[in-house]
Protein: 5'-nucleotidase SurE
Organism: Halapricum salinum
Amino acid sequence: MDEAAPTILLTNDDGIDTTGFRVLYDTLSDVGDVTAVAPDSDKSAVGRAMSSSVSVEEHELGYAVAGTPADCVVAGVEALVPDVDLVVAGCNDGANLGAYVLGRSGTVSAAVEAAFFDVPAIAVSMYIPVREDVTFQSISAEYDAYSEAARATEYLAKHAFGAGVFDHADYLNVNAPMAGGEHGPLKDGERAPIEITEPSTVYQMDAVREGDHVQLHDRIWERMADGDIPDRDGTDRRAVVDGKVSVSPLTAPHTTEHHEALDALAETYPDAW
């Protein structure tokens, strides 16, 4: 790979015309040859859902795909962008934090899909506080709000290969605080440091039945906005709440371990019927 000018496939799950996507496109264009292969509409939280056929239209940034983020990576690597050196997914509107989120996120799933092609990847998300005084849509439309996410992504895209990062990690899950202002943890002009983290294992989903419906709710987001979280130092969620860019080096395949208890069950299985 030519480290000075890598071929970068850029995708996301919010859709090709979102502000965060354009920010990363503009930023990474100073790093290498960027081609967008992204959903033509919002495909958030679809995980690694896969289609058997997708339509593709040319777009000013590359290609708009009527499919999922995983579709975009497969189509891009195999058919649309030859010799991809790096897949970048993002910038997502909202954080992708915690171990339980990894399989749900279309952004992270695009990075996982790339890993199965042996293509290094970076998933990038920006944390937007969920509070009554903050309108999610207004923040996600602000180009400058993504500056910390863009700065960290540019740095990693430039230096991760030379540093040997991808010799050990299949992909990086990057979560950045929104840039300075009254709503984020950073003051105007303040820059966030990078902290190497691991996904938090704290899980606070709950469900409440209301007649014929069950409301599903992740209580951690309100706690994050208040700065009152149960996550320990060194975790992705704690880093972002503290105003740092969280970078979690991850591997894609599920791990397996030898289980003597399962061996015993397998041995007794023939005699169980």
